[in-house]
Amino acid sequence: MDIDARIKRRQRRTDGRRLVEDYESLSPVAHVDEPSDRGPTLERLLDHLDPVFDGQLPGNAYVSGPAGAGKSAVVTALFSHLDRLSTETRSIIHTSTRPATPTSPAFAYVDLRETTSEFAFYHAVLDALVEESVPDHGISTAELRERLHALLGDSGTGVVVVVDHVGEPEGTDDEELVELFAGLPSNVSWIAVGRRDPEDVPLTEYTATEIGVDRYRRETLVDLLMTRASLGLARQGLDHELARQIAEWAEGNAHDAMAALFVAAVRATEDGRARLTEGDVTAAVEEVPRESVSLGRVLALPANKQLVLRELVDLDPGERASVTATTEAIGAVPAVDLSPGTVKRYLYEMAEVGVVERVQSEVTNEQGRPPSRVELRFSPTAFRRLYDLRG
């Protein structure tokens, strides 16, 4: 008897007017356990990882593909399953052609959006391999690396580490990442995941395999939207034709498609509708910028920068007419305990990495120079709701 499930079903029961039943299922930053239409990519990854099933380490690999192609979704889902197998058995089930029972390598996942230093990198790998808590303070990077070498020195099986979001603007650069990998024990292999073409990535000098991931096909993206809607919305909350409109607009980018669905659902909910309308979808796709920055990147920013963005999305266009006006408007909010200089610096830093954009105004200021207004590179509605749900 699953009492929690029974309670949750009653909590989600509606009177026919409630549209969103589970925001997590609709979230563009959440991954499902079984990604849609990524079977070929999954098979290529399993082909590369095949030595694992004989208790051996595979070579290094680089997985690449455009934004929203499902790279992170398939890698995290696969590693979650493999890690459970490794944790539960620490051995590979043998067949008649494999008389021995080799020990399975362990698995670790590192997200470079959240792991932004040498200390954090080795901490993340070590923390994934041990049951006890790894200290965040009072220990040096060298000590962490020594602990990792000592731990794996006692194991002949080693570890496969997947490093996600390689090459993003605010993340670890190529040379630093090569040095981080070089600092790992010899019985560690890695899989790097990023958007850039393999020939543009220095890491591929050290890889045995390169795996490309294509954009979603339109029909598959429709299925993905309908599946996620069935988990997160009330029955018949999303019409198939509206899902097709979102998929056609998104052009194979699952992140943008899910962001549009999320925004449309928030809009419909706020207006008290029990299902999405064409107006909700039209407004949503107009709000999500083309070539938008991933909401996962935005929500991985330091807390104070997210706080600045949370206030920024609520400003009127006039309050964002210039960086100075934006700084003053955000600084006037009591909840923002930051100096104007810090707020302005954050805005400039986030513009440099593409989270926001400084767009030159057509109106000149008193000095004769046109000011730069601050524009968002992500959906304000989606960020606002995701931020508030996490808070």
From TrEMBL:
One Pfam family here: AAA_16
Domain Orc1-like AAA ATPase per the UniProt entry, residue ranges: 38-187
Gene3D superfamilies in UniProt: 1.10.8.60, P-loop containing nucleotide triphosphate hydrolases
Tree of life domain: Archaea
InterPro entries named in the record: AAA_16, P-loop_NTPase
Protein name: AAA family ATPase
